[in-house]
């Protein structure tokens, strides 16, 4: 009996020692995500510096390679060199791989390899997946990742084939298939990279209903969030949608509807944009330009030709961005809706923020406020820095660039290729912060996050 008790005691000590050892070597999910994205970016930059990556056989200079790899991994789409004419097939495939890994998250691909190898997903890996997917809990996270992979393959394949059929009328069949798949993957992941050449994006298809509607569908599906797609898929069994899905879909629909109408009205008599187009072309162009600030980055109208009110509207749309748990950036639609709800409740003298007969927790409101203020601070700070490094450039152009980088959109008024070396570094850091998230970076660099052991007495200050 005594030997058995001693054996149990020694076993417990050994288990405690293993747990202590694991705790010392444990990295918080935010630290792993920041380090993982950084590692992927530097590997991608190294590949793009190889002579085989560019048509001139010299490879990209380090800073340009780092910029391109960051833009692809952070699914932004800002480019300092033209993708279609600068890179070889190898270079383009490197960029496409970075887009896919960056859009879905490296933890999703790590899980895929674990599935293929028959490995069990540990608790630590589930916590990392929860952080990467921006999910509320780890319950069902592995099942969600499996469906994310299936959704991605099916949507990109269907979109790629539809685009390939359309492109086959303008180019050889094999090239059309490659172009179709490249643009489907790029736009579903809200990246905005294109192969059309000469920084034209999709302006040659401004009145084409197939290209416009297919690409818009890819952008919307990529930006609505995998959690929403999964709930739609399960609706036949559950017959219900969560509050998150209702708010995300409602906010996205309202933003798209109002922005399409506003762009149509603001650009209707602009001789450089909508005026020369047919009635159908006017609608398609307005709709596309309303969809792409969801953090996609491709465009069918020349961005510098848009009127200033339209440009400012696009800046606002870029800052809001896509929905949580998606391939897009920005502060997210649910964050914007929560803040609007808080303002409306305050105006009406109500204590609670209520959506669809559900009360929003105060923690959610505080987090929404933190995300928004952090985003505003980054955009303002980056804009101020760029006004110093890019002297002589139009202020609206600089603000547009800073917002596009933070929200990982990729739209540009033409400033990106003309950036100074320091300006490129600033945009690189901004894209990285926008993709990983200001809060994730803040948590990653914070050594200890413990709740306060006490609370201070309340105080009052004047507001307004």
TrEMBL record:
Keyword Chloroplast on entry: no
A GO molecular-function annotation: potassium:chloride symporter activity
Membrane topology type: Multi-pass membrane protein
Parts of the chain that traverse the membrane: 32-50, 62-81, 93-117, 148-169, 210-233, 245-266, 311-344, 365-389, 425-445
Domain of life: Bacteria
Pfam families, per database record: TrkH
Statement: the UniProt record of this protein carries the keyword Oxidoreductase: no
Subcellular locations according to the entry: Cell membrane
Chief subcellular location: membrane
Gene Ontology CC, one term: plasma membrane
Alphabetized UniProt keyword annotations: Cell membrane, Ion transport, Membrane, Potassium, Potassium transport, Transmembrane, Transmembrane helix, Transport
PANTHER family assigned to the protein according to its UniProt record, in alphabetical order: KTR SYSTEM POTASSIUM UPTAKE PROTEIN B (PTHR32024:SF1), TRK SYSTEM POTASSIUM UPTAKE PROTEIN TRKG-RELATED (PTHR32024)
Protein known as: Trk system potassium uptake protein TrkH
Organism of this sequence: Parageobacillus thermantarcticus
């Amino acid at each position: 009996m005594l030997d058995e008790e001693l054996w149990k005691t020694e076993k417990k000590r050994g288990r405690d020692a293993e747990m202590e050892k694991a705790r010392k070597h444990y990295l918080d999910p935010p630290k792993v995500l920041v380090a993982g994205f950084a590692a992927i970016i530097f590997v991608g930059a190294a590949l793009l510096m190889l002579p085989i990556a560019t048509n001139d056989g010299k490879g990209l200079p380090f800073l340009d390679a780092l910029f391109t790899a960051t833009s692809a991994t952070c699914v932004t789409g800002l480019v300092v060199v033209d993708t279609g004419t600068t890179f070889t097939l190898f270079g383009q495939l490197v960029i496409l791989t970075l887009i896919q890994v960056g859009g879905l998250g490296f933890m999703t691909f790590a899980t895929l390899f674990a599935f293929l190898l028959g490995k069990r997903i540990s608790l630590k890996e589930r916590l990392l997946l929860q952080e990467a997917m921006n999910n509320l809990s780890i319950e069902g996270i592995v099942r969600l990742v499996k469906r994310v992979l299936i959704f991605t393959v099916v949507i990109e394949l269907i979109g790629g084939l539809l685009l390939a059929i359309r492109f086959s009328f303008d180019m050889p069949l094999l090239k059309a298939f490659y172009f179709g798949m490249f643009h489907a993957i790029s736009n579903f992941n809200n990246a905005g990279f294109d192969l059309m050449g000469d920084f034209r994006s999709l302006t040659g298809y401004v009145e084409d209903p197939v290209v416009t509607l297919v690409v818009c569908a890819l952008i919307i599906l990529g930006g609505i969030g995998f959690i929403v797609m999964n709930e739609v898929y399960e609706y036949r069994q559950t017959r219900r949608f969560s509050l998150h899905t209702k708010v995300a879909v409602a906010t996205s629909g309202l933003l798209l509807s109002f922005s399409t109408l506003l762009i149509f009205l603001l650009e209707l008599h602009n001789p450089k944009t909508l005026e020369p187009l047919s009635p159908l072309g006017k609608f398609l162009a307005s709709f596309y330009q309303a969809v792409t600030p969801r953090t996609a980055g491709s465009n069918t109208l020349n961005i510098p030709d848009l009127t200033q009110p339209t440009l400012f509207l696009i800046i606002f749309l870029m800052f809001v961005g896509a929905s949580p748990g998606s391939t897009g950036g920005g502060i997210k639609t649910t964050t914007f809706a929560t803040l609007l709800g808080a303002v409306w409740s305050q105006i009406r003298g109500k204590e609670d923020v209520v959506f669809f007969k559900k009360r929003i927790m105060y923690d959610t409101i505080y987090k929404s406020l933190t995300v928004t203020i952090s985003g505003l601070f980054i955009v303002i700070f980056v804009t101020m820095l760029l006004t110093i490094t890019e002297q002589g450039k139009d202020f609206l152009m600089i603000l547009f660039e800073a917002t596009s980088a933070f929200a990982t959109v990729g739209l540009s008024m033409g400033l990106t290729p003309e950036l100074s070396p320091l300006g490129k570094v600033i945009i690189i850091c901004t894209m990285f912060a926008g993709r990983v998230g200001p809060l994730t970076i803040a948590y990653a660099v914070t050594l200890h996050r413990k709740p306060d052991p006490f609370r201070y007495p309340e105080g009052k200050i004047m507001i307004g």
